[in-house]
Design a protein that fits this description.
- This protein is of the alpha/beta class and 482 residues long.
- The protein folds into two domains: 362 residues, 3-Layer(aba) Sandwich (Rossmann fold); 71 residues, no CATH class.
- The protein is 54% helix and 8% strand.
- The chain is built from 19 helices and eight strands.
- Strands 1, 2, 3, 4, 5, 6, 7 and 8 form an eight-stranded mixed sheet that branches.
- The radius of gyration is 25 Å and the shape is globular.
- The N and C termini lie far apart (69 Å).
- About 9% of the residues have low confidence.
């Protein structure tokens, strides 16, 4: 509990500042990058967890995302409005189930009780599936026409990354950025890591006193896996692995865990630039559509992992090895935390970019868990053009081509072909299919880039479906009347 009091007190230091800075105007667009909610463990430091709960979003994680969604709906009521609009709310998730479930639950928190209703005179037995079962009628007759589904729930669309945009969350480093694995291994063995181990050795040894021989922490990957399980248990209100209950030791180790995770993932400048590039490039594209065009997403929500949030925080200089170490030294000396916004992105953490576009010069605000953080030479309200320059510079002024080159990855077409080769091998179609696939996928990339399926066409299709449904309904009403 004291560990969570430490986290909450750190947030509270800057809350008044954040509220004061953001209360003056409503943004025209928000871009949110959030971590999934609390989950089960991904390593075996606590054998009391059933295997079917490993890596799975827990009820705690669902609650976190629901509350986050409800808060966002109230804070940005001008954007989310009273009902879900597919054409202005864009949601995309990493392919991991806990991320998809987190996105869905957050949308549930935003749009609960705002779904559509049937017309008051609509015949209940008309709105049923063609399913032969006595229970169909019993369910239909209990439903009210004031709700299409109970609690006015409306299914919201969560897009999932696929072979054409999987690089966004870097879930497939083997193809999109294989050098990341090499750099991570280098960082775990470099001089800075060895020196940090000596600094943190007392804390590590105190943790090892609680672990059996097979669990003792002797390497950095082991330390990271243990720290992850410790946080998983704390969020599930369980005892830390090894039966550790000392809040001071838990707090110390949290800083140790944070430093080594950061050093492994973001220890080199090229890591910080490339890890954040794909997401920042996405965000800038969303902002460009808002500033330059009449059609844009009012909200773009991205459901990812801790490394996704950390990559942005690291690239923008909000998290560094130095500020993590300073916080550790402050904590062990029982002093005020030196850098209260320099902390690990815990479950359901969120980064939000607010774009204000209708009051003179467009500007951007950046918030980490509702605390506004200055960017662009210390500006809280960063002019849009300056923010673009700042964000591009922090991600190495890369393009997708240079990103792939620096990552040691294949080009985009080869990445797509590698997926097809894997599929055709599974189907037994043979190696010869590669050449045909290359041609087809090249054409496919061209079609995608031209965006043949535009928003206007989607609208026309929906309009035709609506008109067709209205015609069918009129026919049914005529038959009933006769």
């Amino acid at each position: 509990m004291q560990f969570f009091i430490f986290i909450i007190s750190s947030f509270a230091i800057l809350f008044p500042l954040a509220l004061a800075k953001t209360a003056s105007s409503k943004p025209d667009q928000i871009i949110e990058l959030f971590r999934h909610g609390a989950r089960g463990p991904v390593s075996n430091y606590d054998p009391t967890w059933p295997l079917d709960q490993w890596g799975v979003l827990t009820p705690v994680g669902m609650r976190q995302q629901y509350i986050l969604g409800d808060v966002l709906a109230q804070k940005y009521s001008n954007i989310f409005g009273e009902k879900y609009d597919y054409f202005s709310i864009y949601v995309i998730s990493d392919v991991t189930p806990r991320c998809i479930q987190s996105a869905t639950t957050q949308l549930y928190g935003i749009y609960l009780d705002q779904g559509p209703a049937l017309r008051p005179d609509y015949p209940k037995l008309l709105g049923i599936p063609p399913f032969q079962d006595a229970r169909v009628k019993s369910i239909a007759t209990t439903l009210s026409n004031s709700e299409a589904a109970p609690h006015n729930f409306i299914p919201n669309i969560v897009n999932i990354v696929d072979d054409t945009n999987g690089y966004i969350f870097q879930g497939d480093r083997e193809n999109y950025c294989p050098n990341m694995v090499t750099w991570e291994n280098q960082n775990n063995q470099d001089q800075a890591a060895k020196e940090a181990w000596k600094i943190f050795e007392t804390t590590i040894n105190n943790v090892n006193k609680h672990l059996n021989e097979s669990q003792k922490i002797t390497t950095i990957p082991e330390l990271i896996r243990f720290g992850d399980t410790m946080l998983v248990n704390l969020y599930d209100n369980r005892t830390a692995p090894g039966g550790i209950t000392d809040p001071e030791l838990i707090g110390n180790f949290t800083h140790v865990f944070t430093w080594f995770v950061y050093h492994a993932w973001e220890g080199q400048e090229i890591q910080r630039q490339l890890a954040a590039f794909s997401l920042v490039d996405e965000f800038l594209s969303q902002m460009h559509d808002c500033v330059e065009g009449s059609v844009y997403n009012k909200a773009a929500l991205y459901s990812g992992h801790d490394n996704n949030l950390m990559s942005v925080l690291a690239a923008f200089g909000i998290m560094t090895e130095d500020c993590i170490m300073e916080n550790f030294n402050s904590y062990v000396k029982n002093k005020t935390i030196a850098n209260p916004v320099c902390y690990f992105p815990y479950f359901a953490s969120t980064l939000i970019f607010e774009l204000h576009n209708t009051s003179g010069t467009p500007f951007v605000r950046f918030l980490y868990n509702n605390v506004q953080i200055p960017l662009c030479n210390g500006q809280y309200d960063c002019p849009y053009d300056e923010f673009v320059t700042f964000a591009r510079k922090k991600t190495g002024n890369n393009t997708f081509k240079t990103y792939l080159e620096k990552c040691g990855a294949k080009n985009e077409t080869e990445i797509l072909v590698s997926r097809v080769n894997g599929l055709t091998g599974f189907l037994g179609l043979g190696f010869w299919f590669e050449h045909v696939a290359l041609v087809i996928l090249s054409l496919l990339c061209g079609l995608i880039s031209l965006r043949i399926i535009s928003d206007k066409k989607r609208y026309d299709q929906l309009l035709k479906r609506y008109e067709s449904t209205q015609s069918l309904y009129s026919s049914i009403k005529d038959n009933e009347a006769s």
